[in-house]
Amino acid sequence: MTDQSDDLAHALTGDDGIVPSSDFAIRVMEAVYEAVAEPPPLPFPWRPMIVGVMACAGVAGSGVALLNQLDAAVLRQAWSEFSAVGPELGYSAVLAVVSIGLLRAHRIFTSF
C-alpha cells in the first residue's frame, strides 16, 4: 500500500511542466464573454399551465358528474351498437397507428 501512496504523492507534487498555449487565456475569456452575452433562458409559462390544468380538471369533473347521472341501460345500448362493428374499428385503428409509425420512421431515417 505504501508504493501506491508514494506514487500518488509523487504524481501530486511533481511538476510535469505543463504550460498552456499562448492564446489559452484569450480563448477562455472569449468563451466567458459569449456566455455573458447570451440572453437569459425563457421563464416557464406558469399561468397558461395553471389555466390548462384547471380546464382539464373542470372537464374531468363534469365528465364524472355526467357519468353518474347516466343510466346503465343507455350505456349498454350504445356499447351493443359498437360491438357490431368492433372488429372493423379495431382494424382501422391499428392501420392508422402503423401508418403514422411508418411515416415517423421514414422521417427519422431520411433526415440524416
Question: Would you tell me the structural class of the helices and strands?
Answer: mainly alpha
Mean pLDDT: 85
The helix tally amounts to 5
What share of residues are in beta strands?
A: under 5%
Report the span from N to C terminus. 53 Å
Order of helices and strands: HHHHH
Question: How is the biggest beta sheet arranged?
Answer: none
- Shape descriptor reads elongated
Query: Rg from C-alpha positions?
Result: 33 Å
Number of strands: 0
**Helical content (DSSP H or I, runs of 4+):** over 70%
Low-confidence segments: none
Briefly say what this structure is.
The protein is mostly helical and 112 residues long. It contains 5 helices and no strands. 78% of the residues lie in helices and 0% in strands.
Note down, in words, how this protein is organized.
There is one protein chain. By secondary structure, the protein is mostly helical. The protein has a domain at 73-112. The chain is 78% helix and 0% strand. It is built from 5 helices and no strands. The chain has helices spanning 2-13, 24-37, 46-69, 72-83, 86-110. The longest helix has 25 residues, at 86-110.
